[in-house]
Automatic annotation (TrEMBL):
It holds the Pfam family Transglut_core3. Residues 102-210 form the Microcin J25-processing protein McjB C-terminal domain. InterPro entries: McjB-like, McjB_C. This is Microcin J25-processing protein McjB C-terminal domain-containing protein.
Length: 212
């Protein structure tokens, strides 16, 4: 995965390059000669011709060539859902419900770029030295809320709420957007290789295109 412009993120699924435009919130499959140029860039083997063609097509900001590529998130190996104990979530369930409700409103109201900017700002804030609530407690709280308020089509809102709560309680959380072909997207949260609200087999079907 790679940021190729201020609002453009891209990844390769096999040999198919896909672009996410966070300004419009839309995904795009690249076809024709441009596909080969973008594939070369994402494979870290671009020629001068590839770069020039992508700049002319408006798909590459030259400034991003000097920026460090964002590291892809660690591949998840386990999930808190497999070990969850609901009794651990009762204390935080009301907080999770409020956080989720706020995130749902923001996702409906705001552009994806605005939402992700807020996520990035939150990631940069100082954290507690010692987490006051465990990852497992946060995962259990959101799974409890999910039993009473199923929002399976709101993975972005749920992930925003989970990442905010984890960071507030001193954990290092990564929000990831992934895609699969034909175009379908999913958003999840992980702490290193541990998934918070998804199982490993579900996430394995998606290629990360953006991580915050």
């Amino acid at each position: 995965m790679r940021q190729i412009g201020r609002d453009l993120h891209a990844c390769l699924i096999g040999q198919t390059p896909v672009i996410l435009n966070i300004a419009s919130g839309r995904y795009q499959l690249v076809r024709g000669p441009t596909r080969d140029h973008l594939t070369a860039l994402l494979a870290m083997k671009p020629s001068v011709e590839d770069i020039a063609a992508l700049v002319r097509a408006g798909l590459l900001d030259p400034a991003t060539m000097d920026a460090e590529c964002a590291a892809a998130p660690v591949a998840p190996t386990c999930s808190h859902l497999d070990l969850i104990k609901f009794r651990h979530g009762w204390l935080l369930a009301p907080v999770a419900l409020v956080a989720l409700s706020i995130a749902v409103i923001q996702v409906r109201r705001d552009a994806l770029r605005t939402i992700l900017d807020r996520v990035e700002e939150g990631a940069g804030k100082p954290r507690l030295t010692l987490p006051i609530f465990s990852e497992a407690m946060v995962a259990a709280a959101f799974q409890l809320v999910r039993q009473f308020l199923p929002l399976d089509n709101h993975c972005l809102a749920r992930s925003i709420a989970i990442s905010r709560m984890l960071r507030r309680f001193g954990h290092q959380a990564t929000l990831v957007i992934g895609i699969q072909l034909p175009i379908a997207a999913h958003c999840w949260v992980q702490c290193e290789d541990r998934l918070m609200a998804d199982r490993v087999d579900r996430i394995a079907a998606f290629e990360p295109i953006l991580a915050r």
